[in-house]
Amino acid sequence: MITEAQVARAEQGFARLRATIAGAIVGQTRVVEVALWGLLSGGHVLLEGVPGLGKTLLVRTLAHALGLTFSRIQFTPDLMPADILGTNVFTEGEGFRFLPGPIFAHIVLADEINRATPKTQSALLEAMQERQVTAGGTTHPLEEPFFVLATQNPIEMEGTYPLPEAQLDRFLFKAEVTYPEEKELVEIIRRNTEGGGIALPAPVMSREDVLSAREVVAAYPVPGPLMEYAARLVLATHPRPGALETVKRYVRYGASPRGGLALIWGAKAHAFLAGRHHVEAGDIRTAALPALVHRLVLTFRAEAEGITPHRIVAEVLEEVPAP
User: Global pTM?
Assistant: First the structure.
């Protein structure tokens, strides 16, 4: 049973967390919000953007502000699954023992995930899904909260291995990290060239606070009509009879049922961060792009004509009536 005191503690904690992140990160408000949705929902987030836009600083700041363990994995073509997950090593007197890899942390930054081979990508994504690592026939659970933020370069960059659609579907949300505006860029330059640089924050929440806040968000009620609205949005992305002409023409495969889960989790988290104790249709609409764009597989015609998943989802939002 969720108590009023637990709700108030969660709201106050995340208010402090957002203020702390805003003090360390210039701009990127939308990216920060989507990252917090993932943290509150127990899902993982994919960040897409070129190097140098502050993704590592964001994740490191989040980990420090929460007092959680942090690990950064730099993905390269020669990275092996054991380099991520860990391996059994033999020591004299002890025999074989498991040496945990960098995935054994509360918050993991999987940097430039699409520079690793598909075999290594699959090893990470399987551990993300199962929340455990198996080595030598022994299962090693990953302690909660276990939260992966993976970054990838735009697909057109050289030396990348695009994530397959089935792997992309395992990320609850996707956010695009964009270049800063001029004022934001000036502030970034100032902070990094004056004084002692950027100091990482002291913890403002604890592991127990995060787990408690997750319980609060999970308990948010979602009325039946809003559940049906989320389902209609997902089904509207499928090129089936009666679908939008744009969807029929440009979409090969629509969003999976995980897209519906992401819509509801994103809506709950958005309502919580907005200070409301109920979910509205606007929360679902706000969550639609981060929840659905990476789940659509477009046709070659769409690629040739420059049609993006963002445009498809935007048209679906316009055409599907909200309750």
Answer: 0.92
Q: Is 82 exposed, middle or buried (0-12, 13-18, 19+ CB in 10 A)?
A: middle
Q: Are 298 and 250 in contact (CB under 8 A)?
A: yes
Check: CB of residue 131 under 8 Å from CB of residue 143.
no
Q: What dihedral do alpha carbons 49, 55, 56, 61 form, nearest 10°?
A: -170
Using a 10 angstrom Cβ sphere, with 0-12 exposed, 13-18 middle and 19 or more buried, the burial of residue 261 is middle
| The CATH fold of domain 4-193 | Rossmann fold (3.40.50)
pLDDT: is 27 or 319 the higher one? Answer: 319
For the chain, give every residue range classified as CATH 1.10.8.80: 220-319
Measured in whole angstroms, the distance separating CA 253 from the mean position of its chain's CA atoms is 22
pLDDT of residue 248: 94
How far, CA to CA in Å, does 89 sit from each of 95, 98, 119, 267?
Answer: 8, 6, 22, 45
* 306 burial level (CB within 10 Å; 0-12, 13-18, 19+): exposed
Mean pLDDT along residues 22-36: 89
CATH architecture of 220-319: Orthogonal Bundle (1.10)
